[in-house]
Amino acid sequence: MSATAATLVDWDDVLASYDPALGLEVHVELNTNTKMFCGCPAVFGGEPNTQTCPTCLGLPGAMPAVNRKAVESAIRIGLALNCEIAEWCRFARKNYFYPDMPKNFQTSQYDEPIAFEGYLDVDVDGETFRVEIERAHMEEDTGKSLHVGGATGRIHGADYSLVDYNRAGIPLIEIVTKPIRGAGEKAPAIARAYVSQLRDLIVALGVSEARMDQGNLRADVNLSLAPKGSDVLGTRTETKNVNSFRSVERAVRYEMQRHAAVLDGGGSILQETRHWHEDTGVTTSGREKSDADDYRYFPEPDLVPVAPSREWVDELRATLPENPLLKRARLQGDWGFTDLEMRDVIASGTVGLIEETVAAGASPQAARKWWLSELGRRANDAGVEITALGVSPAQVAAVQALVDAGTVNDKLARQVFDGLIAGEGTPEEIVAARGLAVVSDDGALGAAVDAAIAANPDVADKIREGKVAAAGALIGAVMKEMRGQADAGRVRELVLEKLT
Amino acid sequence: MSAPSSTTTGTDWTRRTAAELADALAAGEVTSVELTQAHLDRIAAVDGAVHAFLHVDAEGALAQAAASDERRAHGQLASPLDGVPIAVKDVLATQGLPTTCGSKILEGWVPPYDATVVVRLRAAGLPILGKTNMDEFAMGSSTEHSAYGPTHNPWDLDRIPGGSGGGSAAAVAAFEAPLAIGTDTGGSIRQPGAVTGTVGVKPTYGGVSRFGLVALANSLDQAGPVTRTVLDSALLHEIIGGHDPLDSTSVDQPLPALVDAARQGAAGDLTGLRVGVVTELGGDGYQPGVLARFQESLDLLVKAGAEIVEVSCPSFVHAMAAYYLILPAEASSNLAKFDAMRYGLRVLPEHIDNPSAEDVMRATRDAGFGDEVKRRIILGTYALSSGYYDAYYGQAQKVRTLISRDFEAAFEKADVLVSPTAPTTAFKLGEKLDDPIAMYLNDLATIPANLAGVPGISVPSGLAEEDGLPAGFQILAPALADDRLYRVGAALEAALAAQWGGPLLDQAPALEGASA
What we know:
The complex is a heterodimer.
Chain A: H1 11-17, E1 18-29, H2 68-80, E2 84-85, E3 92-95, E4 105-108, E5 115-124, E6 127-140, E7 144-148, E8 160-164, E9 171-177, E10 180-181, H3 187-205, E11 217-227, E12 237-242, H4 245-264, E13 272-277, E14 282-288, E15 298-299, H5 310-318, H6 324-335, H7 339-348, H8 351-359, H9 364-382, H10 393-404, H11 410-421, H12 427-434, H13 442-455, H14 457-464, H15 471-481, H16 488-499
Parallel strand pairs in A: 12-13
Antiparallel strand pairs in A: 1-9, 1-10, 1-11, 2-5, 3-4, 3-15, 5-6, 6-9, 7-8, 11-12, 13-14
Helix pairs in contact in A: 3-4, 8-9, 8-10, 9-10, 10-11, 13-15, 13-16, 15-16
Chain B: H1 18-26, H2 32-50, E1 53-56, H3 58-73, E2 86-89, H4 116-123, E3 128-132, H5 166-173, E4 179-183, H6 190-196, E5 199-202, E6 223-227, H7 230-240, H8 258-266, E7 274-278, H9 288-303, E8 307-311, H10 319-334, H11 357-368, H12 371-384, H13 390-413, E9 416-420, H14 436-440, H15 447-452, E10 456-463, E11 470-476, H16 482-500
Parallel strand pairs in B: 2-3, 2-4, 7-8, 7-9
Antiparallel strand pairs in B: 1-3, 4-6, 5-6, 5-10, 9-11, 10-11
Helix pairs in contact in B: 2-3, 7-8, 7-16, 8-16, 10-12, 10-13
Keywords (chain B): ATP-binding, Ligase, Nucleotide-binding, Protein biosynthesis, Transferase
Protein name (chain B): Glutamyl-tRNA(Gln) amidotransferase subunit A
GO molecular function (chain B): ATP binding; glutaminyl-tRNA synthase (glutamine-hydrolyzing) activity; transferase activity
């Protein structure tokens, strides 16, 4: 399938003629130990079809039983989104055929979601915009098809298809917004900010890995245009599985420009699902989604209703983390970071790590420096999550304490991190084992300074003549000789003592 | 209980009840291997004519019997019925043993797991003789809708054994198995029990785990015992019943003392018991001989000290209509998984070069599902479709609520409710095959219990004068009060046996030498 750009209308012209209505559906894959309705492990990856049982394979006779932990996560998400929590709700069957769906119905929630009527305040260019949440409901994921033999990996042209059911039955929460209207030119930015802040919230709740690149968090973008000033909603398209914040923003903008082109040309928008192409930045037509879709929902007779007690809901409410938006503002104030510094910290996902490092005694600036420039770079180089480096906030604080005490300098501290990542022990042990401590002993330093003066008579003469700035070259030579372990301040003092 | 008649003495182990077999095993008169072999021999002799079984697992059953004998030798019995063989309806998943639900679409499918009921049977030491015939996916009242051919009623091989559990009932009635498991969605244990002269119990909904029971209609299905006596049913019920965390609809409460209730009832004293006769379950459409046997049974209950009260359940007249909307709706969804993708039959369509998944699915379903199944899929799909949901499925659920209220009101006036189990005795094979509505009417009296989730039992009440075929007496109790079924059922059974001079089945024709 080719993915070339359709004719688009200039952005300013779109805004002049149309009002967008935006709707976002975000699927969050929960990080429960087991699947939604059976005891199979709910972990990413694994050899195909090794994490399955009669229930998640939908074998005849097998029955679901609800995972209480998944219900708990759903309630916490609902509460964090300021939703009402249903006192009594049910699962329903959504009947449709799909080869990677074992039962040919999805166990989901229909008219009785666990959470409803909430909102999330998002920050768009310093302004707060309230996105209203219609519902958050529980459902199960499907399996995954793998098409073999074709050039594109898609079903068209494939010789055969294989299905992996490891993912089938992993718990999902689907969070659906109400139509966001009146956003105008800000629609793309609001879409991005919403998904981004929703992710922060999910991470803060600890209910999902929330990695968009691994599909833990998947956004569907619904968009329609109406003539400016009209109350009526236009026909919408649903762009599926957009998998980065930037793509969410681009997809909204693209669809607005594409819709406008179709409408300006006298055409009408087809209600359909569309695919987003990251590389070319366009959407292409997927399945036509007519009104004839009939999922024949009815209450799942194999599951008893979910009726969370008010006591339980209150208990869960008490465990909610601070709202990420408010928390961020508070931390920035506490830490004295500039807007730019704070934005970098947020983008790197190290807010929590810095917070813990500060709590362990380091200054906010030191914590930011180590996590962002040093450890962030290493994680990037290794292509792993920063937490996978195996360095804890307490260790970072301990390294900084050694710097503050003059035991090591920044350069040596980097070697201490090498040791920590290699698992060589505590920072103190690594300093001792690797012999990293700064030398400030006058005897050893004096000998090195004398040697440097002897080796650089021209430089020494300049200093004797009063050109103190030339001392840098001698200090550098001493540091080199001492493999960076000299106390640079003391070396400077000794050089000047001897030559002036 | 009455003394065994002459036919239950001697060395023919197949004529004994399960309780008697348990006693014989305990007394060392027989081994489990011997009596399992005796039943396998009986199956070999008569099943060609009866066709109660779809799969016989001689090897597996004998191995389980040997293991039981081994346990007994070490004094470690797994249950009171350890070593007594049993037959299982082919709708329950059995690990390593084919499970077809009487359908071509599952021909040859061998489940990799056991249904919870089967797990419990194995744990209790009951050798599994094989899987019994049934209407395809339990849709039917005659076992004529099995894709593998009908089962014949041991009382008259030209007649139906009831359905959908005709295989289980016929196996027990033909002395091929002392015990069987059936499933009852609208009467599929009780109605076959009535027309074959056996005892059939539908426990309280959720009283026996449904895990591994291939669903017909999940909100109605219930597995239960099929036996020759009330006591045997109680013994079996105590083994298969009780909470199962794998079935979230299963009741999380201990079972009442069922065996005790059966033994108490057999003593024959029902003083103070209020028996409610349901006005709506009798009269028009009921065969006179069936009604006569019902009346006699009532008289016996009165003799035992019971008080008869008339109760009316006005919503019962709508039960059939509600049932035939809810059942197909759930079934249409349950059967969607049979799509030729993963297991069972796969038919490649002719005249299509590059068939899509949908093409293969269409061809497979066309070849793999029988007419009755297709009929109900269409009905259910229609009843659930948007625009019709409220008019059909939604209304049916409201009727269901009304029926539950009728039961609640009736159980305030009576401890148990009674009626004939089925309106007629066994009809002839083929007689109602082309008239689905006439076929559906056979479950008139049994359906309300499934809609409300209350337990019921059918006890043989004698032979109808006009055709000499068995009729059944249905007893219904409030949810979770299954023990009342056993108390009243055992009392009636004892009184009737005293009249007949032995169990009703002693009057059944011998099948030796019969041919299909």
